[in-house]
Amino acid sequence: MDSGVQNCDTSNGYVHLQNPHLKTMTSDFLYHFNLGTATHDLPAMFGDVKFVVVGGSATRMGKFARYIHQELGLSESEEPRDLADTDRYGMFKAGPVLSVSHGMGMPSMSIMLNELLKLLYHARCSNVVMFRMGTSGGLGLEPGTVVISKAAVDACFRPRYTQIVLGKEISRPTELDQGLVDELLHVAAQEEGLTAVAGNTMCANGFYEEQGRLDGAFCDYTEQDKLEYLQKGRDAGVRNLEMESLCFAALCKNAGVKAGVVCVTLVDRLRGDQVTTSHDTLKEWELRPQKLLAKFISSRLGIQ
Length: 304
Description:
Layout: E1 29-30, E2 35-36, H1 42-46, E3 51-55, H2 58-71, E4 91-94, E5 97-101, H3 106-122, E6 129-138, E7 146-153, E8 160-165, E9 168-173, H4 178-189, E10 196-203, H5 223-235, E11 238-242, H6 245-254, E12 258-268, H7 279-300
Parallel strand pairs: 3-5, 3-6, 6-12, 7-10, 10-11
Antiparallel strand pairs: 1-2, 4-5, 6-11, 7-12, 8-9
């Protein structure tokens, strides 16, 4: 069953959640953030948020929050701190930017994103733009290239996120906002030393077999099988592989929130599976999506 987007009116710019039960609840506790409508003034804490950036680890998202805080010239007295009093996810705020970790894989992303979208809803945030940033494996690209996703696709290269709900299979579309793609490419073109391309991102349910790797604990296919599969993806417009974008794209789209995915590639999967680049080089590459999004946000806010 294809659920599509359920009459999501976004004309007023607010987050629209497709759950009538929320309106009957006297309070809502966001368990994995340890935040709630009865315990916190969410509009006062988060009502000014205009940009949300999510990524894998809490450490990385804390560093990004401090980086964007500096880039936006915010007061030193407002140094970002972790607002989620839990060890599940990290949440840091720098002015109008919210930086949140999502863990690894779609189940972790789904849990975090359900609660994050509810937070934005309860806080009455409007005209929010959301991004996932991170690392990925490339297809036919030089490592270090940044991929700006046009759509997230599943392991069969279909632009849909499939779930089992009450024993029934439902699918939601996973196209991303094309205006954001063009805007990000424009910003990237002005950054010296940054190579960025647009393409589809394949999202897998695992790191090893699901992505056709030969170096996991289990492998029942040949190298030729692997290369044929990855080339098929390349021919279908896939330029990188990771494990979260499908869920991210689908849920943001269903809530009427403009979203983008920006990931740097660490290895060309058509040439190998393991990341052998030096630690220092990897650290520099991992900063590229952060710098691109910082420039995008600064441009949107009119900060040069």
